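Bug #77: duplicate submission created two jobs. Keeping one. Sequence:
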Amino acid sequence: MDHPVFVVPGIGNSGPLHWQSVWERAHPEWRRLAVEDWDQVACNDWVSAIERQVAQSADVNTVIVAHSLGCLAVVHWAARHSRRIRGALLVAVPDPIAPAFPALAATGFAPLPTERLSFPTIVVSSSNDPYGSSDHASRCANAWGSRLIEVGEKGHLNADSGLGDWPEGLELLRSFA
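Kept job's structure:
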């Protein structure tokens, strides 16, 4: 990619077999969100961290690639800040009011912003994601003005999904170029 890429993992920080980590190893110039605690997450803390770290690059061509809870943090960040970026790939958007959502470990994410985002976005959804239904992904994509990509039954689109380096996802990320 010819543009800066900012990786925003979900809760737990996407382990070494997660496609985000695999992509980062292949692209050491990419930056990853840095937060104090990956396991006890407050929305406001992550939004502030995203703002600080995206502001450091000051590049309107930055592309964000977020997974799970990271997607929710990016959307809250976009609703609160007017910083311009090239776009965001939002993968496996969880539903913060669903029973499976880790409400004890992740606070402040509901309600989700429902405004159209000021930059292009792609929402990638799996039909059997335990943290967010296809209907939820569709509602989010519609509200945010996102392109929706449904990839079939692939779970939470994480390391347990067996995606490896997930070339289809990388092509979606490259589409922002």
